[in-house]
C-alpha cells in the first residue's frame, strides 16, 4: 500500500456502526469468497524505462488528477473499503496532493510545485518502477507503472501493439466505469447498474439528447472514418486494437477472478462459482461513450424555447419595444465589459442579432408543454424520487447553461522570468470515484504523449503533453444547437418537411431492474420514447399563431459523435504537431465546442473549435425558427446532418498574445455564446485580474502562475467583485440597526481579508470569516429578489431565472452543477447586480441594463431594500443556510462546501476542502524544442 493521505486534508472514512446500504444484503459467503479472490493481477517483473530522450520539458512539466489512477477494485477491496475505509493501491494517492493546495499555495516556490502535483516527465526512473506488464503475453508492447502514482506508461514497437496496450491499461484502471458509461450513452444504465433515482436521471439526461439506435452508432463510425482518408483508416485500426486490449483484460481478469467487484454486487457475476459474463466492448460502445462526453462538455447551445418564453414575458410586462430592450440587456450577447480570452480587440462575429429577424416561431402564450420522455412507469419508477429525478434531468438537458467548469492561464515567454511560456490549465470535469478521466503515457509509432483521457476513449491522450508542447481545453459554449418549429400535419406524429407530410421516427428504450447488493432499489421499469424528425428530436409541443407545432433541437454534432477522433489523433502525433499553426490545424478537426490552448518553449496559441453552422440570413440563433427551407442552415443535408460551417479564420484564434485566460467566459469581441451571463462580472475576472497584474510586473514563474490560479480557486466571486459596491450603498448613510450593523461589520472585515472561503488552518474544517460567509450565502438570493423582482414583476423575474440561475455558491445544490462539485460561480446574476448597483451609485457603466431596478433608481430606496434583505439573511441560522444532505449534517458550513468524490463504483474517499479548480491540471514550462 502507498503512504496514506495526510489526515489534515481528508475527512477520513470511519468504521461504520453497521454495514452501509451498499453492503446490507451481502452474505458472509460472499465476503469470504471475495476475500479469497486474487486482489490484483500479478505484476510482471522488473524491466524499466529510463527518462525519455524525446522529453523537452526539462523536468518542468507537472500534472495532477484526483483521487488516484486505480479505479478498479476487487470485491474484497470494496468490502474492506466500505467497512474499514482502507484504500486499494493508487486509488487515492493523488487526492491529498490536490486537496492540500488551498492551505499550501501561499508559500509555493518552483521547487515545491511537485508537493502538490506529479512529475509529468516522460518515462519512469529505474528505481521507481513498480510493475512491468506484457499485456496478453505480447512482445510488441509493455506497460510500466511507477511506485508513486501507478500511472501506466505504454510503450509499443508496433502501432497495433501500442493501442492494444492502451486498451489493456484502460481496462486495468477503469473497466467498471467504462461499462457504466457505455450503458449511460445507450440509455440503459438502470438495467445494468440498478434503478436508483440518480441512475434513472442520468440515463434520461443523456438519452434525451442522443437517442441513437445501434445502427446510428455504427453509421457514425463508418462516416467519420471514410471521410478522413488515411487518417480515418488509421483511427479505425487504432480503435480495433484498443478494443482488443480491453477485451483481453476482461478475459484475463475473469479467468483470474480479479475483475472489478461491482460486477458481483450488481448481480452480473457470482462470487462463488464465477458464473456470469462481462460483455466484450465493441466499436459502437466507443461512440456511445463519446456521446456522453460531448453532451456533458462540448455541445453549446439550446435553450431557445426558454429564451422565447422570457422574451414574451418581458414584452407582456413592458410592451413589445421596451420589453425587447429589457430582454436584450439581460441577455448580454456582446457585453463591452465582459472578460475576453482574445483581448486584443480583434472581432469574430458569430450568432449576432440580425437587424431584421426572419422566420421566428415564438409560441402562443401558455401553449408550451415539454415533450414527455418516460412512459409506462412501474414499481419504483413511479415513486416521487424517481419523477423528481426525471424532472431534474429534463431541465438539465434542455438548458443553455451547459457545464463549463474548466480554466486556463497561459503567459507568453516575453513576460516570464525564463523567457519561455508558462501554462497552468486543465478541464474541470467534476469529482467522481473513479474519476471520469485517467492518466497515461503512450509511446509508439506515430504516438508520443502523456496526459488525461476519458475512460474508454483513451486510445489517444485527449488533454496533456507531447514531446515539446502541451495542450488543454475549456468548454466554450458557442451555439451549435438550433430549435425549429415543425408544423404538424395529419396528427401529432407527422410534420411538414418541404411541403410533404412526413412521419416522425419513434425511438424507444425499455429498462427494468430489480434489487441487488449494490442498489437495493425495489423492482421497477419504464419506457423511454423520443420522436425524431429531420430537424432533430422533439423537445416541446406548442402552438404558433394557432398552428400546432413540435419544437425540435438540431445539433451540428448530432450523428457526428465520432468525428473528433481525427483531431485527437493529430494531437498525439509528434510528426504532425510541431508549432502553433499545426496545433490549430489539429484542433480544427474537433467538432465539439471547446477553447484549446497550446504552449511550447517559444510560443503560445489559442483556437476555438466546433462545427459552427452558417445560418440563413436573418435567422436569430436565440429563438425558435420555422422548419422551412428558407431558415435552414446553409447547404444543410438532413440525411447526413452536414451543412456549411464557418471557416477556421472566423473562429476566435490567436498566437502569442501576451496572456490568455479562460474560465468558460466570452471568447472574443462579437462572438456570442449560447449561455447567459457573459457580463461585467464573471468568474473569468478572477483569473483576468490576477494574471494581468503578473504580466504587468513581468518575470512570471510557474509557481507565481499556480498561486494566481489557486488564489482564484478559493475566492468568492460575489464577495470580491460585487460586495464592495453593495456595502457602499448600505453605508451611504449610517447603519443604525444593530443586526444590520453587525452584518456589515463582518462582511467588510471579510472583504478586507481577501474575500476567500478558506479554513482557519489546514484541516480545521472551520472557515475564517465563517459568519460573513454564512450571511452572504443567505443574503445573495434575497438581495437579488429584493433588487429585481419589484421592477421585473414575478413572471418575468421567474422567466429570467429559468434562463440564468440566480446563484451558484459552492454549497448550492440548486445550480447546474449540484452540490459538492467544486465548480462554482459559473452561472449567476452577479453581472446584473453589479451593473445595477453601479448605476444607483452613479458610476459609469458600459452596456448597462435598460433601466435601474434597485429601489427604482433611488439610492435611499435601494439602501432600504438591501438592508431589509440583509437583516433577514443575518437572522438565518447556519442549519437553515446549510440544511444538510446525504453527506453533511445541517449547519456544517465547511462540509456543505466540501468536495466529494461521487461514487460511481464501490470505493469511497474522504472529503476535501472546497476549491474551484480544474480536476485534471497541468503546470508546464518547456526549456527547448525539436
Highlighted features:
930 residues, alpha+beta, ten-stranded mixed β-sheet, 34% helix
Question: Could you please describe the fold and organization of this structure?
Answer:
There is one protein chain. This protein has 930 residues and is α+β, with helices and mostly antiparallel strands. It has a ten-stranded mixed β-sheet with strand order 3-4-5-12-13-14-15-23-24-26, covered by helices on one side. The longest helix has 28 residues, at 229-256. Residues 1-51 have low confidence and may be disordered.
Multimer state: single chain
Distance between the termini: 39 Å
What fraction of residues sit in β-strands? 15-25%
How many β strands by DSSP? 30
Number of helices: 27
> What share of residues is helical?
25-40%
Instruction: Characterize the overall form.
Output: globular
- Given as residue ranges, the uncertain stretches (5+ residues, pLDDT < 50) are 1-51
Global structural class: alpha+beta
Could you give the topology of this structure?
Elements: H1 28-36, E1 61-64, H2 75-84, H3 95-99, H4 101-104, E2 118-119, E3 129-133, E4 141-146, E5 152-156, H5 159-185, H6 189-193, H7 197-209, H8 214-227, H9 229-256, H10 262-265, H11 283-297, H12 304-318, H13 320-331, E6 347-350, E7 369-370, E8 374-379, H14 384-398, E9 406-411, E10 422-427, E11 432-433, E12 437-444, E13 447-454, E14 463-465, E15 469-475, E16 481-489, E17 491-497, E18 500-503, E19 505-513, E20 524-533, E21 536-544, E22 547-555, H15 565-571, H16 580-587, E23 594-600, E24 604-608, E25 625-626, E26 653-655, E27 659-662, E28 669-671, H17 684-697, H18 702-713, H19 717-721, H20 723-730, H21 738-753, H22 770-792, H23 794-803, H24 830-840, H25 859-874, H26 878-881, H27 893-897, E29 902-903, E30 921-924
Parallel strand pairs: 5-12, 6-28, 11-29, 16-25
Antiparallel strand pairs: 1-2, 1-30, 3-4, 4-5, 7-21, 8-20, 9-10, 9-27, 10-30, 12-13, 13-14, 14-15, 15-23, 16-17, 16-22, 17-18, 19-20, 20-21, 21-22, 23-24, 24-26
Helix pairs in contact: 1-2, 5-9, 5-11, 7-14, 8-9, 8-11, 12-13, 12-23, 15-16, 17-18, 20-21, 21-22, 22-23, 22-25
Amino acid at each position: 500500500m502507498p503512504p496514506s493521505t495526510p489526515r489534515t486534508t481528508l475527512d477520513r472514512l470511519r468504521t461504520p456502526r453497521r454495514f452501509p446500504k451498499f453492503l446490507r444484503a451481502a452474505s458472509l459467503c460472499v465476503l469470504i469468497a471475495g476475500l479469497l479472490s486474487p486482489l490484483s493481477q500479478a505484476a510482471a517483473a522488473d524491466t524499466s524505462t529510463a527518462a525519455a530522450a524525446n522529453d523537452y520539458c526539462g523536468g518542468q512539466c507537472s500534472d495532477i488528477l484526483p483521487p488516484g489512477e486505480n479505479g478498479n477494485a476487487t470485491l474484497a477491496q470494496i468490502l474492506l473499503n466500505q467497512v474499514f475505509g482502507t484504500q486499494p493501491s493508487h486509488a487515492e494517492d493523488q487526492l491529498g496532493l490536490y486537496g492540500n493546495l488551498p492551505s499550501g499555495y501561499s508559500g509555493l516556490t518552483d521547487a515545491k510545485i511537485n508537493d502538490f502535483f506529479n512529475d509529468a516527465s516522460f518515462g519512469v526512473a529505474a528505481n521507481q518502477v513498480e510493475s512491468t506488464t506484457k499485456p496478453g503475453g505480447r512482445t510488441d508492447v509493455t506497460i510500466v507503472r511507477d511506485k508513486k502514482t501507478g500511472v501506466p506508461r505504454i510503450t509499443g514497437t508496433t502501432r497495433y501493439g501500442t493501442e492494444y496496450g492502451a486498451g489493456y491499461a484502460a481496462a486495468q484502471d477503469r473497466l467498471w466505469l467504462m461499462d457504466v458509461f457505455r450503458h449511460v450513452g445507450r440509455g440503459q444504465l438502470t438495467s445494468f447498474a440498478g434503478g436508483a433515482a440518480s441512475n434513472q436521471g442520468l440515463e434520461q439526461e443523456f438519452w434525451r439528447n442522443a437517442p441513437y439506435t445501434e445502427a446510428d452508432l455504427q453509421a457514425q463510425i463508418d462516416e467519420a472514418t471514410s471521410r478522413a482518408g488515411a487518417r480515418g483508416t488509421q483511427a479505425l485500426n487504432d480503435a480495433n486494437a484498443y478494443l482488443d486490449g480491453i477485451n483481453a483484460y476482461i478475459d484475463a481478469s475473469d479467468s483470474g477472478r480479479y475483475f472489478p467487484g461491482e460486477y458481483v454486487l450488481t448481480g452480473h457475476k457470482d462470487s462463488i462459482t464465477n458464473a456470469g459474463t462481462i460483455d466484450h466492448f465493441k466499436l459502437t460502445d466507443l461512440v456511445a461513450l463519446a456521446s456522453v462526453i460531448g453532451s456533458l462538455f462540448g455541445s453549446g447551445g439550446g435553450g431557445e424555447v426558454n429564451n422565447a418564453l422570457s422574451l414574451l414575458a418581458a414584452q407582456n410586462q413592458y410592451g413589445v419595444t421596451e420589453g425587447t430592450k429589457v430582454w436584450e440587456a439581460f441577455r448580454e450577447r456582446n457585453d463591452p465589459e465582459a472578460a475576453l480570452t482574445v483581448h486584443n480587440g480583434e472581432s469574430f462575429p458569430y450568432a449576432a442579432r440580425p437587424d431584421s429577424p426572419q422566420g421566428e416561431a415564438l409560441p402562443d402564450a401558455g401553449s408550451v408543454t415539454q415533450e414527455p420522455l418516460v412512459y409506462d412507469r412501474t414499481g419504483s419508477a413511479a415513486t416521487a424520487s424517481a419523477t423528481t429525478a426525471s424532472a431534474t434531468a429534463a431541465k438539465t438537458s434542455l438548458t443553455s447553461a451547459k457545464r463549463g467548469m474548466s480554466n486556463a492561464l497561459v503567459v507568453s515567454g516575453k513576460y516570464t522570468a525564463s523567457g519561455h511560456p508558462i501554462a497552468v490549465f486543465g478541464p474541470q470535469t467534476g469529482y467522481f470515484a473513479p474519476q471520469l478521466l485517467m492518466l497515461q503515457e503512450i509511446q509508439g509509432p506515430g504516438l508520443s504523449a502523456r496526459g488525461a483521457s476519458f475512460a474508454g476513449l483513451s486510445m489517444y491522450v485527449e488533454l496533456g503533453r507531447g514531446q515539446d508542447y502541451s495542450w488543454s481545453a475549456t468548454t466554450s459554449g458557442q451555439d451549435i444547437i438550433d430549435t425549429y418549429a415543425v408544423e404538424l400535419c395529419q396528427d401529432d406524429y407527422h410534420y411538414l418537411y418541404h411541403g410533404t407530410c412526413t412521419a416522425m421516427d419513434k425511438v424507444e428504450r425499455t429498462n427494468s431492474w430489480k434489487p441487488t447488493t449494490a442498489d437495493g432499489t425495489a423492482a421497477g421499469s419504464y419506457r423511454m420514447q423520443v420522436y425524431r424528425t429531420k430537424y432533430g428530436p422533439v423537445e416541446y409541443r406548442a402552438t404558433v399563431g394557432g398552428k400546432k407545432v413540435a419544437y425540435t433541437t438540431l445539433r451540428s454534432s448530432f450523428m457526428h459523435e465520432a468525428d473528433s477522433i481525427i483531431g485527437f489523433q493529430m494531437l498525439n502525433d509528434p510528426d504532425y504537431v510541431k508549432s502553433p499553426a499545426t496545433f490549430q490545424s489539429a484542433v480544427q478537426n474537433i467538432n465539439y465546442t471547446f477553447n484549446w490552448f497550446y504552449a511550447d518553449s517559444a510560443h503560445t496559441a489559442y483556437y476555438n473549435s466546433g462545427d459552427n453552422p452558417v445560418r440563413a440570413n436573418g435567422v436569430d440563433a436565440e429563438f425558435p425558427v420555422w422548419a422551412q427551407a428558407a431558415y435552414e442552415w446553409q447547404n444543410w443535408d438532413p440525411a447526413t446532418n452536414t451543412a456549411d460551417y464557418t471557416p477556421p479564420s472566423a473562429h476566435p484564434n490567436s498566437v502569442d498574445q501576451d496572456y490568455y485566460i479562460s474560465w468558460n467566459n466570452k471568447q472574443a469581441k462579437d462572438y456570442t455564446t449560447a449561455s447567459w451571463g457573459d457580463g461585467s462580472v464573471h468568474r473569468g475576472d478572477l483569473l483576468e485580474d490576477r494574471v494581468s497584474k503578473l504580466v504587468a510586473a513581468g518575470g512570471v514563474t510557474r509557481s507565481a502562475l499556480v498561486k494566481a490560479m489557486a488564489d482564484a480557486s478559493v475566492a468568492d466571486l460575489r464577495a470580491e467583485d460585487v460586495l464592495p459596491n453593495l456595502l457602499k450603498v448600505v453605508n451611504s448613510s449610517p447603519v443604525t440597526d444593530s443586526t444590520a450593523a453587525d452584518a456589515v461589520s463582518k462582511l467588510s472585515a471579510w472583504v478586507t481579508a481577501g474575500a476567500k472561503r478558506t479554513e482557519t488552518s489546514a484541516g480545521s474544517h472551520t472557515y475564517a470569516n465563517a459568519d460573513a460567509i454564512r450571511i452572504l450565502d443567505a443574503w445573495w438570493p434575497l438581495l437579488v429578489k429584493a433588487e429585481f423582482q419589484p421592477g421585473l414583476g414575478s413572471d418575468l423575474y421567474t422567466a429570467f431565472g429559468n434562463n440564468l440561475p440566480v446563484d451558484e455558491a459552492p454549497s448550492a445544490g440548486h445550480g447546474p452543477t449540484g452540490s459538492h462539485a467544486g465548480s462554482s460561480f459559473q452561472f449567476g446574476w452577479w453581472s446584473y447586480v453589479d451593473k445595477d448597483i453601479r448605476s444607483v451609485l452613479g458610476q459609469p457603466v458600459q452596456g448597462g441594463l435598460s433601466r435601474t431596478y434597485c429601489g427604482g433608481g433611488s439610492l435611499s430606496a435601494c439602501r432600504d431594500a438591501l438592508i431589509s434583505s440583509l437583516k433577514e439573511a443575518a437572522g438565518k441560522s447556519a442549519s437553515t443556510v446549510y440544511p444538510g444532505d446525504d453527506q453533511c449534517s445541517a449547519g456544517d458550513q465547511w462540509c456543505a462546501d466540501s468536495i466529494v468524490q461521487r461514487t460511481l463504483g464501490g470505493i469511497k474517499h474522504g472529503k476535501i476542502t472546497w476549491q474551484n479548480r480544474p480536476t485534471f491540471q497541468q503546470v508546464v514550462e518547456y526549456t527547448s524544442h525539436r
